[in-house]
Design a protein that fits this description.
188 residues; alpha/beta; eight-stranded mixed beta sheet; two-stranded antiparallel sheet; binds NADP nicotinamide-adenine-dinucleotide phosphate
């Protein structure tokens, strides 16, 4: 069964970006002793889902509007669903689909586009929370970097207690710790 997974890197104190929406703190972590294996995860992913801040960050950082040929190098031909209430540009040729409103309403289309493969919720935290709110988040994979930020974009700004989270795996990847949790439905 295809899974909906929120997979992200996080600081030790639970932020996925600093208060400037920057990630330098992540890229500065020494990877000489190893790094998380992203390729194996990506091989199972049929669809990418993200909020507009994350999407605009990727566009900017990778200069994708100026260099649209970079898009398939990064994401292949997978559809990317971007949640936004605004009209945003997309790189030429990229399969980017803009959606707004309740995750519940978009979910059937997202699942259909995944065509039996997994759905990667890239972030941010609140969007992942919107999936968790309706019991549509199956798995949480957090790669914990040896950094504290004090403030920034939160990992998952929801109260989800241990009756919904079950630790499936713990892996050391050099300086990073990768934690995988199964996420259960909301408890009534
Ligand atoms: N560490 C990592 O691996 C990692 C992973 C992912 C992201 N990040 C970073 O973390 C930060 C996350 O930013 P963020 O917290 O602002 O989250 P985000 O999910 O990227 O963007 C939030 C925005 O998405 C739009 N949105 C969300 N849900 C929506 C809905 N249901 N309907 C319509 N629009 C919706 C809204 O903007 P509008 O309606 O105004 O467009 C909202 O303000 C970014 O800087 C990103 O680059 C880091």
């Amino acid at each position: 069964m295809a899974q909906v997974t929120y997979k992200t890197a996080t600081s030790l104190d639970g932020f996925i970006a600093d208060e400037r929406n920057a990630l330098e703190w992540l890229f500065h972590v020494d990877q000489s002793s190893g790094a998380p294996d992203h390729d194996t995860f990506m091989a199972s992913v049929g669809v990418i889902v993200e909020g507009s801040t994350t999407y605009e960050w990727v566009l900017r950082e990778e200069r994708l509007l100026e260099q649209p040929a970079r898009w398939p190098q990064l994401f292949g031909t997978r559809p990317t669903f971007v949640f936004t209430s605004r009209d945003l540009p997309a790189p030429d040729g990229a399969d980017v689909r803009f959606v707004r409103g309740a995750v519940h309403d978009a979910l059937p289309t997202i699942r259909a586009a995944a065509n039996g493969h997994d759905v990667w919720v890239v972030g941010g935290g609140d969007l992942a929370g919107q999936f968790a709110d309706i019991g549509a988040l199956d798995r949480l994979i957090v790669t914990v970097a040896p950094v504290t930020l004090g403030r920034g974009a939160p990992l998952l700004p929801r109260r989800i207690e241990s009756d919904r989270l079950s630790l499936l795996a713990v892996e050391r990847c050099g300086e990073f710790a990768e934690l995988t949790y199964a996420v259960g439905p909301p408890v009534r």
